[in-house]
Amino acid sequence: MSGAMQDFATHPTNWLVILPVVLALLGGAVLLMLREAREAQFWLALGIVAVIFVSDIALALRVSETGPVAMTMGRWLPPFGISFVADLTSAVFALAAAGVTLLLLVYLRMDMPDRARRDGVYPLILLLLAGVSGSFLTGDLFNLYVWFEVMLISSFGLMVLGGRNIQLDGTVKYGFLNFLATTFFLAALGLLYGTLGTLNMADIVGRAGLANPAVMTSIAALLLLAFGMKAAAFPVNAWLPASYHAPPAAISALLAGLLTKVGVYALLRALVMLLPASREVLEPVLVLVAIGTLILGPLGAIAETNLRRALGFLVIGGIGATIAGAALGNATGLAGSVTYVLHAMLTISGLYLVAGLLEAISGETDTRRMGGVYAAASLPSLLFFVLMLAVAGVPPFLGFWPKLLLVQGGIEGWGFGRDGWALTLWLAVLANALLTLIAVSRLWAHIFWRPGHEGAATEAPNPDLKPLSPQVRWLGLGSAGVLTLVVLLLGLWPEPLLGFGKDAAAGLLRPANYIVATGLEGAAP
Amino acid sequence: MDHVIAALSGVFLAAAIYLLLSRALIRMLLGLVLLGNAVNLLILVAGRLGRIVPPIALDGANAPSAGAANPLPQALILTAIVIGFAMFAFLLVLAYRTYQSLEADDTDRMRVAEPRGGPKPPMSY
């Protein structure tokens, strides 16, 4: 047993793995103490998130050069001590999360009610970022549960901040169902621990193959339910359109951009990397879930008249695409899945930010009464145009590349194994792209092209539209513009994105380096 | 002993699901609490019960003596209880505040975010 204790100090550069989480947690605590100094709070929050962003960049660079980096807490060696492990997937996701949060902080300054600032919006955002980064970077399943809860309770706070009736209503549904999902996750953890005697991810990879496959598949199914609920996959998606349009636009952007993606990340990590044999057994379920989510999302968006509710359905459609990659299970499909998560983090947050601007211009949340924005405000229209084509997957915009990989993965699955599931998924991804294009072009026609309200029989400009104030223009358009620019550039120059997808998928499918980095070479199969 | 606790966990789970299917917020909340306890018992059983030697390493030893109880499930449960309690407290306050503001504790009557009989899809341009 003495071998289980670590008698050397962790190499200082490996501290980089927990730096984003530690900084966010400490920052949240400090900001809580500074709640009276509201101006200082903003600048401090901005500074801390900027430092987190920089350390995430350093981590991603290091991981892309040397492979996964790990660090274990305390003196207990893995699998006893709690490990933090960054492989390419987690490092890049954490980087994207920090980047989006940084821009959202700027955007949030544009129209923040003083009341929200008093009630601690900045500490909550930092704690949310801590939860999200922790979920991405942890190498221990129970620790993942804890970060889920950190993320959950801060998102409750953010969603209800302001306390309007619609927010209370949305938070009740969001809160109950998400808490239920994490409880299912906890139950799966208990069963997993009872079966394998370990919760360290690298250790689970080695042991899962030796355990009773029926038990492992039941656990995997429970994990699929829990993470599917968090990710808002069909048929457990009803909470998302009920709640994400309730808080202010910047907060919805933060939640829609990051939280569901953490669910998808956990799903990929658990089913693809930890329990690959069970994923194969569950493949028909995954396929049906993916197809349902892929088709239901854009159909909901087409039927919806509330702008941000329509965007919520587009979030769901994207989740379907990521699950399609997990259902395909080949390297190309998984690369599509991983790149789609990255694309959705950036594009969906951007869409919500622009939706906030559109609501500020028109004073409405209903697309039937928003008409004529194109004539009144050309810059937000331009941003929306780029983002809507990106989300629909029109080349050369960002969303095209993940969908191309998914389609390619479907063809490969069909070509190599005559796998009928792969063919159905291939069709569903194409149908999703078409339906999403219909949904967003309807939004475009209703909000931008139509001169006035629905049914207004006049060509005169909509008199209810008012120009953005200078502050809103600089902060709101600036942050949404930077995000759109990133989406545009990544779409036009997709080489890094595709390379990341290929390497990340390989890392998930063959986690040997991950296990070595954690320090469990001997336990590998 | 394991079987008894496992069965108890199952009873808790059944009661929790029954309560969660209710439309009243308070019942759903109690259902969540019961569910949390069912899962805690599940973790406890998963760590195997029945050993009575406390898991304490003696002076000079690196490991507890043979036959010691498994301390890890207890650590997991403790964490889960603390988190579950925080969530319960938040949701309780949220439910009360919602009851005050919306005058409803019945989820069927809480339709602010998703109004009943909402508008039809936009039919025309």
Automatic annotation (TrEMBL), chain A:
Organism: Devosia insulae DS-56
Record's keyword annotation contains Cell membrane: yes
Compartments where located: Cell membrane; Membrane
Transmembrane annotation, as ranges: 15-34, 41-61, 81-108, 120-138, 144-162, 174-194, 214-240, 252-275, 281-303, 310-328, 340-361, 373-401, 421-440, 474-493
Name of the featured protein: NADH:quinone oxidoreductase/Mrp antiporter transmembrane domain-containing protein
GO BP, one annotated term: ATP synthesis coupled electron transport
Pfam hit, one: Proton_antipo_M
Record GO cellular component, one term: plasma membrane
UniProt GO molecular function: NADH dehydrogenase (ubiquinone) activity
UniProt domain NADH:quinone oxidoreductase/Mrp antiporter transmembrane: residue ranges: 139-411
Topology of this chain in the membrane: Multi-pass membrane protein
Family that this chain belongs to: Belongs to the CPA3 antiporters (TC 2.A.63) subunit D family.
UniProtKB keywords: Cell membrane, Membrane, Transmembrane, Transmembrane helix
Lineage: Bacteria, Pseudomonadati, Pseudomonadota, Alphaproteobacteria, Hyphomicrobiales
Key word Cytoplasm present: no
InterPro entries, alphabetized: CPA3_Na-H_Antiporter_D (IPR050586), NADH_UbQ_OxRdtase (IPR003918), ND/Mrp_TM (IPR001750)
Location, primary (coarse class): membrane
Automatic annotation (TrEMBL), chain B:
Keyword Transmembrane helix carried by entry: yes
Listed GO CC annotations: plasma membrane
One Pfam match: Oxidored_q2
Membrane topology: Multi-pass membrane protein
Keywords associated with the record: Cell membrane, Membrane, Transmembrane, Transmembrane helix
The keyword Transmembrane helix is assigned to this record: yes
Localization terms from the record: Cell membrane
Entry's transmembrane regions: 6-21, 28-49, 75-96
Top-level taxon of the source organism: Bacteria
Family membership noted in the UniProt record: Belongs to the CPA3 antiporters (TC 2.A.63) subunit C family.
NCBIfam families xref list: PRK12658.1
Protein name according to UniProt: Cation:proton antiporter
